[in-house]
C-alpha cells in the first residue's frame, strides 16, 4: 500500500509551470496521474471492531485525505444501475429547450431555496472572481422530486441511485472515515440520519469549440460539505485539483494538477469537502478543483456527483482529538444548514 501512495505522490509532483497551463490549457506530452482505486466493499458489513481489511482501506484513505483529499473508490453502486443512470442523464440533457423549460427549476434564493431541479447553462459561477459564467447544465435530485417533465425512466433511475449512493454508500464511507481518523465509528454517520442536505447532481458540459481553452467548464472551488462522490462518463478529461488550506481557493490561477478519471464509469472519484476539513481542524485537506476545456475543441462531458452534507440541524464542531493541548480550534462550530446555505448562495449568486 505504501508503494502505491508513493507512486501517486511522484505522479502528482508535476504542476502547471507557465501562465497558459495555469489558466487551464494542458500539456499533451504529459499523461495525467491516475488515482489508485480503493474498495468500499469491506465496509458492507459493520462490526464493533474494524476488520483488517477495513483498517487497510481506512489507512489508505487517511493518507490521501491528509495529502490532497482525492482518491478513487469502487463498489459504491451496482454497475447496471449506473448504466441506467448514464442513459437517463443523456436523455434528460438531450431534450430541446422548450421541454427543459417545463422541468422543475432549481431555486437558489434564500428563504425559498430548494436546491432541486434543473439549472440551465450560464446560471452558475463557482468562482466568483471569474467574469464569465459556466456553460454547464445540471439537474439536482433530493429526497423528494418532481419528475413530471423528465424523460420516461429518469425518475426511477435517479431515485434508485439516490438510495444506493446517498442512503447506502455515503453511510458506509462515513464509518470508513471515522475508522481512518480514530474516532467512534458512528461519529460522522450520526450526521446523516435525515439526509436532508445531501444532493445527487446530474451534470452535462456541452461541447466547446477550439479556442475556449481558458474558459472553465466548472470554476475553481472546494466542495462544501462532508464528502463528494464523482462519477465521470468514459473517463472524460478536464478535472484539475489543488490542495488548499481551510477549504478556500486563495490563488486560483497557478499550481493546478491534472487528475485522470478512473476510466471505469462505475468507479467514483472521492474528495474531501470543506466542512470536513473544518471538522478535523484541517487534518484532512479540502481540495480545490475545477473542470477546464483545454486548448482544443472540447467534447461533451457527462458526470454524476453525490454531495454528502451533514443534516441541517446537526452541529459540526472540531473534535478535541484534532486540537493540540492548550490550543483553540481553528474554526467555530456551525450547522449543516448554515454552512451549506452560505456556500450555495455564493455559488448561485443569490
TrEMBL record:
Record's signal peptide: 1-15
Matching PROSITE patterns: FE2OG_OXY (PS51471)
Top-level taxonomic group: Eukaryota
Pfam families in the cross-refs: 2OG-FeII_Oxy, DIOX_N
Keywords (A to Z) from UniProt: Dioxygenase, Iron, Metal-binding, Oxidoreductase, Signal
SUPFAM superfamilies the UniProt entry points to: Clavaminate synthase-like
GO molecular function: dioxygenase activity
Domain Fe2OG dioxygenase stretches: 196-310
InterPro entries: DIOX_N, IPNS-like_FE2OG_OXY, IPNS-like_sf, Iron_ascorbate_oxido_reductase, Oxoglu/Fe-dep_dioxygenase_dom
Family, similarity comment: Belongs to the iron/ascorbate-dependent oxidoreductase family.
Protein's recorded name: Fe(2+) and 2-oxoglutarate (2OG)-dependent dioxygenase
